[in-house]
Design a protein that fits this description.
Blueprint (H helix, E strand, L loop, with lengths): L5 E2 L9 H12 L1 H7 L4 H12 L10 H14 L4 H27 L12 E3 L7 H9 L4 E3 L2 H5 L14 H16 L2 H5 L11 H4 L7 H5 L3 H9 L3 H15 L6 E5 L7 H7 L4 E6 L2 H16 L8 H25 L5 E5 H6 L1 H11 L6 H13 L7 E2 L10 H7 L1 H7 L6
Parallel strand pairs: 1-7, 2-4, 2-5, 3-4, 5-6
Helix pairs in contact: 3-5, 4-12, 5-13, 13-14, 15-16, 15-20
Length: 419
């Protein structure tokens, strides 16, 4: 793929003539569009009830995030008509999934007997090798990655006999195909696919306490609220979704990942006390601009008024808070509570890195797993959709300032600077 193009956040946005035209037309009827796609809490809750025919949202944990989101969306996000449709659909889908998950659990009380034992949980920041690691862990015959299609529509739970033929796979694949048609640079920035391992942040969204909402639109007020909210109920729903998904497809151990866990390690480990936690580390001067670029590109799909400097500053603050909370937790935790994995070690010798992390938890990489690892590493495409290029200055970021600010973190875990 030597001739694959380079992409930056400047290439991202709405490239479809149809959507540009639709945005112009819908803009002329802005009032009616806003009324039809209301972000008022009661309107969204009622829409989810109508969509599913269900009414029980369980514990009263939705009102507060819905109110915060309404304010943030209406006053900060600057959504286009398409962006309003997409973000409204995201919230409606999350609420509908919550209704369906809770109803399925109510109808099947035996799900409480499903145990989520010793899950692999990757907690590193974005752009630190977490996606590669999740793919490698998912190749373990005794591990099951959370795939995008089943996280998007978990009810009814997939069955072993039809798992690879479930029609939800094709439906999810069409969704990603449309996304990549609208915004080709996204494929170079992050892998997407219906059957690829996805972040379990997609389960936390059932409680509307999910970092993924901040990647889709500029909602800093919601982000500030999310950083301080109690995550225990969100993790309870997270576990119920996993119990549901494994109820008809026996699962020895889940392979999960999302950087959001760094913000709420206590709540995560309270729910999964025997988790095998892996914290990936990489030079923040590479991580922060890359995350800023990715999120700028994502938000340009839903807004035509995205300020890269503002996005960069917001995510610099968020990522620093994440590692600061992680450092504080590490100071107080028992030695060995997680395995620390350097990005450079993973990239130089993936199989060696896997052996070390398995050994940390008293396990060995099974010979068949190692064969699968070698085959996958030999066959995976290199930059098949182009390369993601970014410059810290585009986001108002200065590498030396980032290095200084994250100095305590990099020093504690021996994170080397990248050239």
């Amino acid at each position: 793929m030597a001739d694959a193009p380079d992409f930056t956040f400047r290439d991202a946005g709405l490239h479809s003539r149809f959507l540009r035209g639709a945005n112009r037309i819908a803009g002329a009827f802005g009032g009616s569009v806003r009324k039809r796609l209301s972000f008022a809490p009661d309107a969204l809750l009622d829409a989810a009830r109508r969509k599913t025919g269900l009414a029980d949202f369980g514990e009263d944990t939705l009102r507060e995030p819905l109110e915060v989101l309404q304010t943030s969306v209406e006053h900060e996000a600057n959504l286009t008509p398409f962006g309003r449709l997409a973000f409204h659909g995201l919230l409606l889908g999350a609420l509908a999934n919550r209704l369906q998950v809770l109803d399925w659990v109510k109808q099947h009380p035996e799900l409480k007997q499903e145990r989520i034992e010793r899950p692999w949980i990757v907690i590193g920041l974005p752009r630190t090798g977490t996606t590669l690691l999740s793919f490698l862990l998912g190749l373990d015959p005794l591990a099951r990655p959370l795939e995008q299609w089943e996280a998007s529509q978990p009810v009814p739970p997939p069955e072993l006999a039809t798992y690879r033929e479930d029609p939800r796979i094709a439906e999810c694949a069409r969704t990603f195909e449309r996304l990549q048609t609208l915004n080709p640079p996204i494929r170079a920035m992050h892998p997407f696919g219906a059957t690829l391992a996805t972040e379990c942040v997609t389960l936390l969204i059932f409680d509307l306490r999910s970092l993924s909402l901040e990647t889709q639109a500029f909602v800093p007020s919601y982000g500030a609220w999310l950083e301080q909210t109690d995550m225990r109920h969100a993790y309870a729903l997270h576990e119920q979704a996993l119990q549901l998904l494994q109820s008809k497809l026996p699962t020895h151990a889940w392979s999960l990942k999302t950087p959001q866990h760094l913000w709420s390690l206590e709540a995560m480990l309270e729910r999964y006390p025997d988790a095998r936690v892996i914290w990936t580390h990489r030079d923040p001067t590479k991580v922060v601009p890359s995350v800023a670029s990715l999120n700028t590109a994502m938000q340009r799909m839903t807004s035509d008024d995205v300020d890269p400097v503002r996005v960069g500053g917001t995510w610099n603050e968020k990522l620093h808070l994440a590692v600061s909370r992680g450092v504080e937790f590490d100071r107080q935790a028992q030695t060995g509570w997680c395995h620390h994995l350097l990005y450079g070690d993973l990239m130089r010798d993936p199989i060696g890195a896997m052996r070390k992390l398995y050994a940390h938890f008293g396990d060995d990489v099974h010979p068949h797993h190692e064969r699968l690892l070698r085959a996958w590493l030999e066959q995976r495409p290199q930059q098949a959709f182009g390369r993601h290029r970014y410059d810290a200055g585009d986001f108002g970021l200065e590498p030396s300032a980032i290095a200084e600010r994250y100095g305590e973190y990099t020093s504690r875990f021996g994170v080397p600077a990248e050239g």
